[in-house]
Structures
1.
Amino acid sequence: MRPSLSVDIAPGRKNSLVLKNPVMPASGCFSWGQEFARHFDISALGAVVSKGVTMAPRQGNPQPRVAETPAGMLNSIGLQNIGIDACISDMAPIWTRWDVPVIVNVAGDTVEEFGEMARMLDGVPGIAAIELNISCPNVDMGGIEIGQDVGASARATRAAVRNTDLPVIVKITPNVTDPVSLARACEAEGAAAICAINTVLGLAIDVRRQRPVLPRARGGVSGPAIKPIALRIVYDIARAVNVPVIGCGGVGSGQDAVEFLMAGATAVQVGTATFANPRALLDVIEGLEAWMSANGVADVNDLIGASFRSA
Ligand SMILES: Cc1cc2nc3c(=O)[nH]c(=O)nc-3n(C[C@H](O)[C@H](O)[C@H](O)COP(=O)(O)O)c2cc1C
């Protein structure tokens, strides 16, 4: 018998979010989904997560926006996106035709904007949940500025939760001493789930030009280089909160997914791996299922937190 991969990432909520499997793209690494939908059947995924959307359309940061790093990459995209109105009018109607829930990643400049965007997305057909990006390291306002402050993170969560019946997932930054207190504060304000982690702040130097490679100097490191950091944060948060944790950071194989689930994640996101291997999401799903079959695990929920659950 095939193992059961189904998980619920918003249990007990008005709109719970049961996924056919625990694997979804990481925001910003899957665009709006259409490009990938031309190459494979995206209904095989647990969910789709959109690029971060802001109140107004954005051009993003000057080039270059990416740099290669050992075992990963550094990016400073700056939330280039079409804006929330176009997301609702042009993208959501397409998503209604897909047999996969779509989670919209939103990035407010202010706490109030997170509330306003949640209100705008509430009840829009084709949108199953909202992910608050309070952790983008590459913008001047909002993003990490909110996400590094426990009080502001809590206020952004509250502003969103009170304006929508959709499950609100809050995406946490690793660029703090104590991510657990951020997660706890967001849970207390009604977050349905916590996503951990966004990128880790980093820098690359161009020795010929004797200056940083990226025009804004700092960028966000992603890929296998950050997997141990993400695992540690997921492990710590999962033991501290009672809502599901979505693990993100360096996932590229079924084995990686198993590790995140055992660390306490209920689901995983796959980001940078999709750039080198556009099939990475499918490989993760197939690898997870194969691992479960080989190890006699009938239900993926039995893996969640296995590394710290008492026998
Ligand atoms: C090119 C690029 C763009 C990204 N854009 C967003 C975004 O719009 N919103 C967001 O919350 N995270 C964004 N991220 C962060 C990813 O969603 C993810 O948290 C991070 O890359 C770690 O996962 P990974 O190691 O699997 O890539 C972006 C990452 C990359 C590499």
2.
Amino acid sequence: MFAAVAISQNPTDPLSGLHLQDVPIPEVEPGWSRVRVIASSLNMHDLWTLRGVGHPAEQLPRILGCDAVGYDEAGRRVVVYPVIASPDRGHGDETLDPQRALLSEQHDGAFAEYLTVPTRNLLPVPEELSLDEAACLPVAWGTAYRMLFTQAGIRAGDRVLVQGAGGGVASAAIKLALGAGATVYATSRSEDKLALAEEWGARGIPTGGRVPERVDVVVETVGEATWAHSLKCLRPGGTVVVAGATSGMNPPADLGRVFYLQQRILGSTGCTLVEMRGLLRMMAATGVRPVIDRTMPLSEIHKAFQLMIDGELAGKVVIHPPTPEGAPA
Ligand SMILES: NC(=O)c1ccc[n+]([C@@H]2O[C@H](COP(=O)([O-])OP(=O)(O)OC[C@H]3O[C@@H](n4cnc5c(N)ncnc54)[C@H](OP(=O)(O)O)[C@@H]3O)[C@@H](O)[C@H]2O)c1
């Protein structure tokens, strides 16, 4: 089958290590299922792997792609919950399992015609959602859902600031927070992305700009470039939830502000299977939908990565593998 495989890592030329090649169709282990992939989507995580961040070189070669939807062996529309982990080892929460692995870390991922995953990781795609829409959800939307509803515990009427409106997680957080009845401010470096955020119902603020009121919750995935602003915009007792640091991991901590204003800083990673079910139900019930910047064939995945590297995307890029020989289109 045709697949995009990470064969080496390079911090300055990450795409040189990504090869399109034919690989064997994966065998199915007991307790696992094979999925014919119809759509996947790109995440920063795929780029980190190619840059050699957070992914040991011994794990290569590895088929990339953390988000997958397709058909299971019974022909059902399924979306893959992307955390391969044991809730028991994580005290009931897969994301706290010390041995957890995101799809494409220790097991081959979704940029291929087929993949195999534990059968418990397959969830039905609600009929209200298209497969392309569902392909955007597992990593970015699952992460945003946990950040907002589990970690920060937002309620209708809360004021939420989302940094970096164009990002996959950030655009999900904007739409989910609006769907939950929050007032949402969203920052971006790009006027076009601010206009888009306003179209969705948020109030756009240029990166680092003045927010008209202190907020209850900040959604942080940008890191160094926005951290000081995030703390300044937070009301006393408010919460910053952080799930990423694209622009750098080590901003000044500003501890005086944190303790004097009793700000809460919470880390967040991925989501549980239960949260992913909640996300799918919320999407079906509210009509909230992911932002798809564009769809591209797997054969053009290098171009898709370049758009992400250049910050040209607003929302998600959906990737379509070729239809396997003999399979229905
Ligand atoms: N913990 C988890 O489970 C988890 C899950 C998913 C992602 N993440 C992490 O979260 C981060 C975002 O992931 P993503 O997939 O949403 O990435 P993405 O789609 O590439 O979004 C990154 C966004 O950050 C903003 N940004 C980047 N560099 C910036 C800078 N120098 N100054 C200001 N803004 C900047 C941009 O917003 P504008 O262009 O609008 O300014 C960009 O759209 C990544 O670090 C990723 O590894 C973590």
